[in-house]
Design goal:
Chain lengths: 266, 313
């Protein structure tokens, strides 16, 4: 796994890259919260929220639709919500005969489904923008300042550092297994239990390799005076542009909610 | 990094109501605060590198899978394995690190939903898996492995049940349909989890038994009580646990999902009696299971189509 799989854009320079990571984390949470609180069917407010996110992408030096396109990662889960289209009582739209039963989507149900999906897509985009405009060490440093237990912060920091190393290790194990194993016409061999045992042994093997690596890393860190904290070269100072960003974001979110509640939905 | 099956447990934002999401966040923060205090030696002894790399191990281990049949694969969520090899409190921290990183860096699961996701996949799985394993930690090898298998299976099923409950309380899904479907699908996924957990433990017990024995006595009986308690609650909420066909309706009524649960049969099934089954409640449950099997089949199929492109380079 290439190291840039994680941070293709975070090392760039833009207005959003330069703002305080603590502020960006708080704003990310605020936007996620605000999205969750948008009422069903407030299409105009959701459109305004999307416009704000496109502006944020531009402020982050990204393509305007960068986060929109990548938000498709959340789509598969949305099929679980399709049930609301049929179980919400309301005006029936159509009758879909499916084997022994008839599915009756209602206007209210479809509206609720669309609202859930749009809220989910809007919220995914904030996380995408946060990671695309913030370096991981800065993110961790800011989490520490925001009250996340230092043990958890250093665990996350070291985890992210060794993620690519261990994913590579896992891929080497899988490649080795594949090259040693003959496969039948359906692409598999042996019984399911045998295959499960092979996979489990790989997990065990990966654990031992990781554990022994962690002991070496630990000793190397102790030898160099590491105390588990992650330091950053970029000091976190709240500047005037951070105040401006905070004010713009808060005014924007309030405006979205006023639109959502003031303008009649139907 | 494709992990299509686990996506069913990674709730994105927008699916939980504000109240449910915040309640889960508060609970998660309390538990993780306790975990980071209990795992104090992580800080004082400077053992953070060990735990950080172990968290990365869990992340990487979730990628290892084995083909089952028909394009589906068995894979690992890892809560039980982590609890047994790391001890329960450090395992909770490691799982929180894994799930948090998946949410923030890979957008696998939402940020507002992170509280719920960590509770379901990183706290409940560890508590249940270790709770079931702990009383047998000093027993012979086959009994230990058996306990780990039961713990791993139960932890995944309970995690799915919790996810379904949170979604239903948020009014995002129909409880009567999604609860049996999530529990049903994860009854099978849990078998994969149990098989991999047992094989991995058996491998580690053969090569480095000292690593597992070091954590075996962690926490005494408290963990057995906690784990079995959570498992019992989850089981009591599961409609499958009840031999009474009205169990689902009763649970729904008790928990105040009445509206959702009872509106389901009328809206979904214009003519909801499955031929040959007289009891309407049973017919509803069966129809729900059938319907959601189709929807979840589609979900898994679609998530395969949508699986992310391999990382560049």
């Amino acid at each position: 796994m290439h190291v840039h799989a994680l941070d293709r854009f975070e090392a760039r320079d833009s207005a959003l890259h330069r703002s305080d990571p603590r502020l960006k984390i708080v704003l990310t949470l605020a936007v996620a919260l605000s999205n969750a609180a948008l009422p069903d069917g407030s299409w105009l407010a959701m459109g305004c929220m999307q416009a704000l996110l496109v502006l944020a992408a531009l402020a982050g030096g990204l393509r305007p639709w960068y986060a929109v396109v990548r938000s498709a990662v959340a789509l598969p889960f949305m099929l679980a919500a399709t049930t609301v289209a049929f179980v919400t009582p309301g005006v029936p739209v159509a009758q879909i005969a499916l084997g022994p039963w008839v599915l009756t989507p209602t206007v209210e149900g479809l509206e609720r489904l669309a609202s859930i999906v749009l809220r989910a897509l809007l919220s995914v985009q904030v996380a995408i923008l946060l990671t695309a405009t913030t370096r991981v060490p800065d993110l961790l440093h800011a989490l520490g300042h925001l009250g996340v237990p230092s043990a958890l912060v250093s665990v996350v920091g070291l985890m992210v550092r060794y993620l690519t190393v261990l994913v590579d290790e896992a891929q080497r194990l899988m490649r080795g297994t594949q090259s040693r194993s003959a496969a039948g016409p359906d692409g598999t061999g042996g019984s399911v239990f045998w295959r499960a045992r092979v996979a489990g042994s790989m997990v065990g093997q990966l654990f031992l390799r990781s554990y022994e690596r962690s002991e070496r890393v630990h000793q190397a860190m102790l030898a160099r005076g590491m105390d588990g904290r992650h330091l950053t070269l970029y000091g976190h100072v709240v500047r005037r542009r951070d105040h401006a960003l905070a004010i713009i974001a808060i005014v924007g979110l309030i405006a979205v909610h006023i639109i959502a509640r003031a303008i009649p939905i139907r | 990094m494709p992990r299509p099956e686990t996506m069913l447990l990674h709730i994105p934002d927008g699916f939980l109501s504000v109240g449910v999401a915040l309640a889960c966040w508060v609970l998660m923060v309390l538990v993780q605060g306790l975990a980071s205090r209990r795992a104090l030696d992580v800080q004082l002894g400077g053992r953070a590198p060990l735990l950080g790399i172990m968290a990365a191990f869990i992340f990487a281990a979730q990628m290892i899978n084995f083909p089952v049949a028909g394009g589906t694969s068995g894979h690992l969520l890892g809560g039980t394995l982590a609890a047994i090899v790391l001890g329960p409190w450090p395992a909770m921290l490691a799982m929180a690190a894994v799930i948090g990183t998946q949410a923030v860096l890979f957008q696998d699961g939402g940020i507002l939903a992170l509280g719920a996701n960590i509770l379901n996949m990183g706290v409940a799985t560890v508590a249940i898996g270790f709770g079931v394993y702990r009383p047998f930690a000093g027993a012979s090898r086959p009994i230990r492995l058996g306990a780990a298998a039961v713990g791993a299976w139960l932890s995944v099923v309970a995690s799915a049940a919790l996810t379904a409950i949170q979604l239903a309380v948020s009014g995002t899904v129909a409880f009567a349909l999604v609860m049996p479907a999530m529990v049903g699908v994860h009854t099978l996924i849990g078998v994969g989890e149990a098989l991999i957990t047992v094989a991995a433990l058996s491998f580690i017990l053969s090569t480095r038994p000292d690593l597992i024995d070091a954590t075996a006595g962690a926490g005494g009986r408290m963990w057995s009580a906690v784990g079995l308690g959570v498992a019992l609650i989850a089981a009591a909420l599961s409609p499958f646990a009840s031999a009474d066909p009205d169990g689902l309706e009763r649970v729904a009524e008790d928990l105040g999902f009445e509206g959702l649960a009872t509106s389901a049969p009328f809206a979904v099934l214009g003519d909801y009696l499955i031929p040959g089954i007289e009891d309407p409640a049973l017919a509803t449950i069966l129809a729900g299971v059938l319907g959601m099997t189709v929807v979840l089949g589609l979900a898994i199929g679609a998530s395969r189509l949508w699986r992310r492109e391999p990382a560049p380079g």
